[in-house]
Write a structure and sequence with these properties.
Blueprint lengths: L13 H37 L4 H5 L2 H15 L17 H10 L1 H4 L6 H10 L1 H8 L6 H23 L8
Length: 170
């Protein structure tokens, strides 16, 4: 299916808005979901073994921890909504995940030798991720960045496993 034209550049049509939404959901959003959650699993799998079950309180900047606590509390204040997850890592966003990776590169690099390249790639999709997450239409280059990172993200799980670590979902 070819990408529809960005509805914001044409005369308004509800059909165009819906086509763009369906396209983004089908071709972009799910890839970002897979990227972010795979990164959460990789971080947990490695840092759990490198530091222990309390890795979050040791390896994560206190400001990021406070942010996660605040977001978790917002979910808890509205219990009729589904919580994001059982671990605090589900209450932070892609820039925070990138910062956790950056701060713990020395612990991640034995398992993922090209960790600095991964940090750069994660940073490269921050804006396209926000575009999609806030229901905007990414351009071709941004869609390609998402596609490229998604295509390669599974190799991180393979590196964790080849290092002899279990893949642990937080």
């Amino acid at each position: 299916m070819p990408a529809p034209r960005d509805f914001r550049r044409l005369a308004f049509s509800q059909v165009r808005v819906e086509r763009c939404g369906k396209y983004i959901g089908r071709y972009n959003y799910w890839k970002l979901f897979a990227i972010e959650n795979t990164l959460r699993v990789v971080l947990n799998s490695i840092l759990l073994r490198q530091i222990g079950p309390n890795w979050w309180t040791i390896a994560v900047d206190p400001n990021v921890q406070k942010k996660a606590t605040k977001v978790r509390a917002a979910y808890a204040s509205k219990p009729w909504h589904t919580p994001a997850g059982s671990h605090d890592i589900y209450y932070v966003f892609l820039p925070d995940i990138s910062n956790i990776v950056r701060a713990n590169g020395h612990l991640l690099s034995p398992v993922i030798p090209a960790i600095n390249t991964w940090i750069t790639r994660i940073d490269d999709i921050r804006i396209p991720r926000n575009l999609v997450g806030h229901m905007n239409f990414p351009n071709v280059a941004d869609r390609q960045r998402i596609d490229s990172l998604h295509r390669d993200i599974g190799s991180l799980i393979a590196q964790v496993q080849s290092y002899g670590l279990a893949v642990d979902i937080p």
